[in-house]
Amino acid sequence: MKIFIDCTSMEKGGGVAHYIRNIINCMPHSIEIVAAMKKRECFERHHIKQIIIPFYNVFSRIIYEHIIFSIIALVNKCKCFFSPKSYTPILRTMPVITTIHDTIPASDLSGENWYTRLYWKIQLHSTFKLSSGLIFINEMVRDIAFNDYRINRKSKNCIIYNGFDTYRKGMGEEKYILIPGTLKKRKNNILAVKLGIALKKIFTDKEIIITGRNDNKNIEREIEELSSEINITGYVNNEKMEYFFNNAFVIIYLSSAEGFSLPIAEACYLNKSVICSDILIHKYIYNNYPIYYNTEKSIENNITHIKEELIHYEKRECKNQTTWKESSKSTIEFIERISY
Questions:
Q1: What angle, 0 to 180 degrees and rounded to 10, lies between the N-to-C axes of helices 299-311 and 189-202?
Q2: Is 175 exposed, middle or buried (0-12, 13-18, 19+ CB in 10 A)?
Q3: Are 180 and 253 in contact (CB under 8 A)?
Q4: Cβ within 8 Å of residue 16, ≥6 positions away
């Protein structure tokens, strides 16, 4: 079976890029892949036809996504158009399977400007109307989408969790207070840094590392003003991120709105201590594994229990753990069921 995949988000990094890379790397070799790319990428899986897209930017993106990619897929005799980034093309030349990671960019919780929210409202409405099959990354994302967008509950859809095993387990020194994630308002980067600074006063030998794409220069400036000892790396490749995770003393992820929060999953798999915001999605997926930060209380009111839990931390089980191989296998099975 030959499928077309829009991989243009890979260059930006972040959760969707991790999703695309891991799903593709774990696909069986019986699946032929035609991938639309902004630039050539190295995959663990070989025999991927990478089509480099010229002049792909914020202005040309809509034309590519809704018309040109469908034509490319047709010309390459693909059986299915797989959209892993929450949109469905208006021009459909074959069945389209779309992964919905969340509906946050269209909501007030996103912290995005009004025209970005409007753009995503239109994208999501068209996706739920036009897609041949929908993949949701957990039950909560599905239920929110059904309720907010009035999707027919009999529509062809499935739940496929993200894999937890993005990074290989290695021997670490536990020397970093690691704060992963794109710099943007809803990620609560400033709060995470302030918590990191408070923890460093207790665990003085630890270094604070912030990784992730910079979507907000103002947040970066605020972080730099808080302390000169914080290492802001920007986006790093998988190899470097694997090193940071394996050498982390604790991972801090205080986002106020998420669809899955991959850094928490990755911490679970590596048996690392992780502090996260006490939002419903985290408690739903990760149960009692993380140390929860009460977002309604100050750092001073949180630090005592966090300190005690870090000192006496007992590794817990997360019942929802799965692998990218299992996620990819379920994805292909769903694609084949819809496409034939």
A1: 50
A2: middle
A3: yes
A4: 9, 84, 85, 101
Contact of 37 with 53, CB cutoff 8 Å: yes
- pLDDT (tens digit per residue) in 43-81: 887 789 999 999 999 899 999 999 999 999 999 999 999
CB 65 within 8 A of CB 89: yes
Please name the residues in contact with 147: beta carbons below 8 A apart, sequence gap of 6 or more: none
Separation between Cα atoms, residue 226 and residue 283, nearest integer Å: 30
- Spatial separation of the C-alpha atoms in residues 274 and 41, rounded to whole Å: 31
Buried (b) or exposed (e) across 84-97, using 16+ Cβ within 10 A?
A: bbbbbbeebbbbbb
Do 287 and 319 form a contact (C-beta atoms < 8 A)?
Answer: yes
Residue with tokens 């536990």: 174
Give the 3-state secondary structure of residue 179.
strand
> Percentage helix, strand, coil, to 5, in the chain?
40, 20, 40
pTM of this structure: 0.93
Q: Which helix (H) or strand (E) holds 231?
A: strand 231-234
* Closest alpha carbon to 181 in 218, 108, 232, 106: 232
Give the model confidence (pLDDT) of 218-237 as tens digits: 999 999 999 888 999 998 98
Residue 155 has pLDDT above 90, yes or no: no
Q: What sign results for the dihedral spanned by CA atoms 148, 104, 17, 141? A: negative
